[in-house]
Amino acid sequence: MRMLLTATLTPCAAMAADADIGASGDAMLPPPTPLTAAQTLYLDVTLNQTPRGLLPFTELQGRLMAAGATLRQLGFPARGEDPVALDQLGGVVVRNATLLQTLALDVPLEQLSLPTTRLERPTETATAAAAATATAAGEAKAAATEAAAHASDATADAAQKVADKARDVADDANKNANEAKR
Q: Which domain holds residue 82?
């Protein structure tokens, strides 16, 4: 086995000795490998279970680093542009699935500077909807009353029933509008 290994390496050593590159074979360093060279990764990020999109990160010697701009995009109050190792962020849970190119971060809200998101309807929208409903109800009530006034005696009973029904609908609409205002 030793003889086979020597025979295999000898031609390479001879070629290196023959090459005139101005440096000895011992002085040349191998190129960086994936384990030693920094790699830029674009990862699909979720922050507190909310998708944030693809963002650039750097992996250096097995550590995931983020530039200041990336941290600010995520809501961290980062200053400067120097990369920060994610494992150095206190209280942050980092789940990196390199093969899936995803990164999940769980961060206490007090560490983030994010705008507040409201899930309920704004009061102005409810008030506008209530006003529109009340206007439509009033118009229906007025139309029904006018139709009843102009009806002949033969259709007066039918018109009265329609007017009564329209008033009921208008009353229900007003009730709904008042409830929407609350």
A: 39-111
